[in-house]
Amino acid sequence: MDIKGLPSDVISPVLAERTSSALPSGHASGSELPEFSHVLKTAMDKVNELQQTASAKMHEVDTGASQDLLGTMISTQKASISFQALLQVRNKAVAAYEEIMRMQI
To answer: Does the predicted model carry a pTM greater than 0.70?
Structure first.
């Protein structure tokens, strides 16, 4: 990538950092990219973990074992937002599948 006015050695660390942060943890830039199914499974596991954490915190607040209502609400919102994001990815994948199936050969 070439940006006018900036030498390539100045922006290369920024580009390297940006590329590696977009990949799942454990994959450095330049190495082989993970399969889509692995990335999707990792995302689903993370959403499940967030939902279980939120559920456990809600149970603790409901039973009086914890007074951390704010932390519980934040965990619940994190779980909700991550689930909605995963649902949007699923919807896009299904739409892409349907589009491919409608193609005439």
So the answer is: no
